[in-house]
Write a structure and sequence with these properties.
heterodimer; A: 388 residues; mainly beta; Immunoglobulin-like; six-stranded antiparallel β-sheet; 4% helix; B: 635 residues; four-stranded mixed β-sheet; two-stranded antiparallel sheet; 20 helices; 36% helix
Amino acid sequence: MFILMISVNSCKLDNYDYPDAQLTGSIIDSETNELIQSDLINGTTIKITEHGYDPVSPQYLRVKIDGTYANTLLFPNTYTVQPDLRNFIQIDAQDINIGKDTKLDFMVTPYIRVKGATIVKEGNNIIATFRLQGTTPDVVSKMGLYANSEPIVGEPVRLVAAEKVLNRLVTEDEIFKVVINVAKNTALLKSNQSYYFRIGVLSSVPGAKFNYAPAQLINVGVVTPEVEPEGTTFDKCESIIGWAGAEGPVLDPENPQEGNYSVKFHAGGGFIIQKKFDQPVDAKVGLEYGVLQFNMYISDVSVVNWNWPGQIEITSSGNPDSQELHWNFNSQLRLANGWNKVVLKLSEAEVSGGNLNLKAINFFRIYNLDVKGPVDIKIDNMKFYEEY
Amino acid sequence: MKRYIFLLIIAAFLITINSCRNVLDLKPLDKISSETMLANEDGVRVFLGNLYYQAPFEDFTYNRVGFHTGSVNTVGIHPDAQTGNAVNSEYNHLVDGTNFGWWDAGYKFNRDVNLLLKTIPTISTLKDDLKNELLSEAHFLRAFGYYALAKRYGGVPIISEYQEYTSEVDSLKVPRSTEKDTWDFVMMECDQAVKYLPSTRSGSNARRATKWAAYALKSRAALHAASIAKYGNKVPFSGDAVSQGLVGLDVSQANHYYELCIEASKAIMTDGIHGLYMANPNSVDEARNNLLALFQDPNVAPEEAILVYGYGKPGTGHSMDFWFNPNQTADGSPHPGRMNPTLDLVDTYENYTAPGESAPIITTADGKIGDYNGFDSNKNYLHFDTPYDIFKDKDARLWSTVILPGTEWKGQTIRIQAGYVKPDGTAVIEADRASIVVEGVTYHTFGADAWKEYSGFDQQHLAETTRTGFSFKKFLSPITVPGNNALGFSTQDWMEFRYAEVLLNYAEAVVESGYTDNGAEQIAIDALNATRHRAGHVTNIQLSIENVQRERRVELSFENKRWWDLIRRREFHEEFNNKIQTSLCPVLDLRVSPPKYIFIRKYIIREVPLSFPTYMYYSPIPGIGSNGLIQNPNY
């Protein structure tokens, strides 16, 4: 009896009403009226602080990836409401009465707008192209294309990412391209499966979260083994015109890698081999994804000191060391005796004497002056292509 | 009946009231008071023994479950398996919500230290010299405790006086100090410790702190504070804890703390007592053996060991040999093989042929290393006669830390093989156990038929066999551990501070601060290269941030340092952003005759992307509701 009475009494302390108030709404770009997309993890949050208590712990609502939010179990009261973590310019806090089905949209300006976004599949590549519009004087830190099997894909939730660090201002007419090569991620992206791909971009505003374009579901199809892109062959090495250096050149018919001949040199020791092009070559590649590739034969790698600072160079000045891109021997070349395929990424090259004009390349040179004995060198099938 | 019950209740009530009278004045029969305990030197020694036990040694029994977990089922997740140096064979685990918490235990420890500090001056039987020495020792312990608190929580309440209990609870509450004041308190306590601690200890005092232990602590703590100041703004926080300075240090403070680290390290480097164990080996083989010996029993190296934490009785020791032996040498443990060093770590070790750079394992003729998708029949893999030739130029410390495939351990050849490629080109890799007969010879996918005779890649025994291609041996007993079928039977001692760390602290502080006084740069170059020479390197490398961090990672691997290195340098979230860790699969290639080994760099099987949430750079403070402290950001 007593116990019962005590129990009944003690209930009174918790006789509050059921939390039957709701707050829902959207984060909307005030200029375009589009929802501002976000992340579930590390994405936009809204801070709400209930009035009438002191001290009071604020509550944080997570905004969904599409830019909408909802909390359907709040106590009716007056709250101070303001976005907290965000990817848009902060707005003032506001006091509102939250009751039944209260709606509150935030009209704001995103740090960066992703414009004209397209994501298409071309062969093994998922290619995202877009423009960016910054709304603050801050630089764009980085951009990326993110892939995941779930629609909550983004920078924090992804299986595969292709990212570019930018750290500079952008103009609205600049077109950006970010590519995921599915063939290079076969452990993570499976043939014939569909994945969500989403473009994200991060402002350098302190504490900024990623801005996004909506995710797209794309079936990656049958992933074909990587075939070498055709690209632009600029010297098939069927003629010695323009070539010079070492003892040579001569046309060599023995086992060419393309056509009927390669260009062959013999050196008693160190060598400088070069070619001047009468007609400048348009590489038809960009610095970002461009690759210089050629076949190179070497009779004996053991006579070459690979730590000597030898280089491979291309220029658009007709001469070495001006408007030049070059690669260092020791960091880039890993050759075996016989024919090798030399693959050099333009993005890994160093610039000297000003920027190279990729539309008018007219000089190639390879040299190493610390060679301990005689060596034969052949070159064949020089080309440029883009690889993602 | 009702009436009896009523009487009974009254009776009980009376008894209760009566018995209340003197209960608070009774002396317990199973405990002694601090007055009795701390009445003489022997009592103080016993008390100190307990303080060393409570002190935050991050030793063999320290891991995500807490401190002193030698006899706890931790599932064998080593702290370095949360930093990228290794993975557990079963679990993909990176972080825990409390981030190796040490709050309640920390303040209990501090209260006991404060009691000692309060009592020592009153013990009439102690001579003044001994009193001073004991006070310095207590300051060392208090510095150790506050270092452990500061690196977890930032600024914390500094309670430097023994608090007498009062019913005025609010008067006992101490607010958090700023992070700067907390680090400065640690520095000051180290200085107090250095003052009267002896230079050497021996006999039954050998494992008590010396002056050099206090300097080593200061070196470590100052480097931590300096790194927070220099790199903290990589991850900006906001909120009350930030605006009140409870977390974070101003970047202008960085060089001040780096210089404190330089001074403290220099004191040890010129003390004439400490140095590297076997600093000048005659060969790489010798270096490998020296390094194995150093960690199997640090008591062989009093010059290197600055403070040792010992384990006495089998059964109450640690469990390194229980969890981390390869499957083949489990010595009765039902749960071996839990430590799987990653390819990422193995890549980090230098080659003797290319000093000053990490040497990723090259597996294909084109030398490319970025493809982790698995076996590709179009690739031109390099062939090797043995499963370990591929590592032959690698740093001695790889060989003395990691069990490489096909190498000897405890008298057995440790077989680690992920599968084979059949003569027809079909790859059977990380698949079910199988065998094939080629030219009359039987080959098994995992290198042997019975699962107790190999140590890798069997998904039927995934917990016991490595999934990275590597097993582990640093610290492990080279001989059978009696009782190893149960937890807690390993008794190899632990070096909390050793000379190599001091050298690398010095080198880091110099290169990060640009400090040049007193020939600091040359001393730093020598310090950086000293540990390399000890590992058999003969070519010096230059002083750079990258070189120091690489050296630190390989020299101090599995000594529970990397977690804090990633924290203090704010590199954790960069290192782990959806990172899938990698393995090296040794595969027998039966397409060639005689068969040879190829190696496949790939994502670790069953591994998932791991990320470090940036709020975990500080741990959450427990009990905010009652202690009234300001919480760390984002908790």
